[in-house]
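Throughout our pipeline, every protein is held as a single compact record rather than as scattered files. Such a record has a labelled line for the sequence and another for the backbone structure tokens. This encoding replaces a full spatial description with a residue-level series of whole-number codes. For reference, a complete record is included directly beneath this paragraph.
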Amino acid sequence: MTSPRAPRTPAPAPRLIATDLDGTLLRDDKSVSERTVAALAAAERAGIEVFFVTGRPARWMDVVRDHVHGHGLAICANGAAVVDLHAGGTFLDVHPLERPIALDVVRALRAAAPGTSFAVELTTGIHYEPLYPPFFLDPGATVATAEKLLYEETPGAAAPVLKLLAQHPELDPDVFLATARAAAGERASFTRSSPTALIEISALGVSKASTLALCCAERGITADEVVAFGDMPNDIEMLSWAGRSYAMGNAHPDVISAASGRTAGNNEDGVAVVIERLITEVEQATS
């Protein structure tokens, strides 16, 4: 069941669906249900583009690679990268976090929240500090201090930084996010998508919404023609920007407040429920 708030004016026909992955399109076991696969394919046949917009890096997109249709594009790392999944995750556009700024953020968070550990997500992979929880999907990561991981002999010579991750073993997740924003919010963009105290830090002004807006502008698609789905704080800007937006039944309270509607949880195929209704609306409008 969905429970959208009634729009003030009739919504235009949807031209693009933007959906988060973890906790939204994917079930908790990280699978895409048969119903959701069918709904995504039906949307594409109806002329509605589907964009996956995620905090995941490009190398973790295999779970949905087969479900990207004609355009082949996905927005990864919370808007820091646009990748072509048809071309093996080739980077088409990057909005990097400059290393000096990342170092400033590291210093600010060490002072504001002692015990914080860091990881650095590059276009070439992720690396992390000794106390940071290890990434078992990335066994080749370098383990060193953030200062060493962010060091480069010549400015611009090293791989771009997509995002900085900060983890705290004790703080409440929302408290940690508020603390980080207070400490360095004027230097970078801070958000979170994990139920733990894990913060994702991007270049100032970079978000899922900012990059999605650029991709839509290139296609002549307005915000009113976009339908978006999400469940965690890193989706809030995107849900606020889109003409129609749905918080999942399992969503964070702030996400529910930001969205214009609500759908079933990710394990109940909440995205598919809405897409099926959208397609019916399109078919009725054109019949």
